[in-house]
Amino acid sequence: MSKFAWVTLATNDRYALGALVLAASLRRSNTKYSLHILYTDGVSASMKSQLFSIFNNSTKVDILDSNDSQNLALIGRPDLGITFTKLHYWRLTEYEKCVFLDADTLVIQNSDELFEHPEFAAAPDIGWPDLFNSGVFVFVPSKDTYQKLVEFGTQHGSFDGGDQGLLNQYFSRWRTMDESHRLPFIYNVTPGSIYSYKAAWQLFGSQVKIIHFLGSSKPWNFQDQQQGQHWEYWRQIFDEDVAGNLSKDLVNFGQRKVDYF
Ligand code: UDP
Ligand code: MN
């Protein structure tokens, strides 16, 4: 077994669909490393069998809620409490090092060099670049770190109610750490940022390696379908690598013919 793994999380069938496309994009990138999915009871049996067929390994986890509905309501995303579940990653001690990817990310080009970075490494958040975005990060599984994170979370909560706030508080020295901890933006590019800085996109766009469909519109919500090459690439991978293996209901969900949920 590879000592390095890409790790993602899905707590329901929608995010599982994202995870399937993400896994297919990693396979297309010819990664040398394993793919590991964390999932919860919220994922249906048929979706689980799809996940097990593309991911090398899986772990079932319980949802850790931040019990902080007030803060979550403040940022308008009550669903993010669930992402406290992300702390479970540190328990994957069968690996020496992992890279976490949100299920709403897409790997455009091989990014195996991310595993050369130390814990903790992440890219800036476009909303507040002195903080990191927790959709892509390098970490070293450790029972000890897991315990400390849980204790820290229980004691301090999270300033935004989600995992990004908690991880930024815990790894609060990130901004001033040396450059190996600060991932280049090409590893966590959010489409909104492309449209807000078109000239930079023209100059650097071809170097982009990982796209992150951050925010409330996701590529698997086909009614939200936005224009742009990366939305199209997500859809292409869905059509070519994922849809053919799904049951009729799930394909219909993907193509919006029936209201699956
Ligand atoms: N997630 C999940 N179920 C949910 C919400 C989130 O599995 O109901 C996982 C999934 O891996 C997702 C990540 O947590 O990509 C972070 O949430 P999201 O990507 O929606 O947050 P954003 O990047 O838009 O802030
Ligand atoms: Mn995300």
From TrEMBL:
Task: Show the GO cellular component annotation of the record.
Answer: cytoplasm
Task: Name the UniProt key words of this record, in alphabetical order.
Answer: Cytoplasm, Glycogen biosynthesis, Glycoprotein, Manganese, Metal-binding, Transferase
Please tell me where this protein is predominantly located.
cytoplasm
**Alphabetically, which GO biological process terms does the record hold?**
glycogen biosynthetic process
Q: Which reaction does it catalyse?
A: L-tyrosyl-[glycogenin] + UDP-alpha-D-glucose = alpha-D-glucosyl-L-tyrosyl-[glycogenin] + UDP + H(+); [1,4-alpha-D-glucosyl](n)-L-tyrosyl-[glycogenin] + UDP-alpha-D-glucose = [1,4-alpha-D-glucosyl](n+1)-L-tyrosyl-[glycogenin] + UDP + H(+)
Q: Where in the cell is it found?
A: Cytoplasm
Q: Briefly, what is this protein's role?
A: Self-glucosylating initiator of glycogen synthesis. It catalyzes the formation of a short alpha (1,4)-glucosyl chain covalently attached via a glucose 1-O-tyrosyl linkage to internal tyrosine residues and these chains act as primers for the elongation reaction catalyzed by glycogen synthase.
Protein name (database record) = glycogenin glucosyltransferase
Lineage, broadest ranks:
Eukaryota, Metazoa, Ecdysozoa, Nematoda, Chromadorea
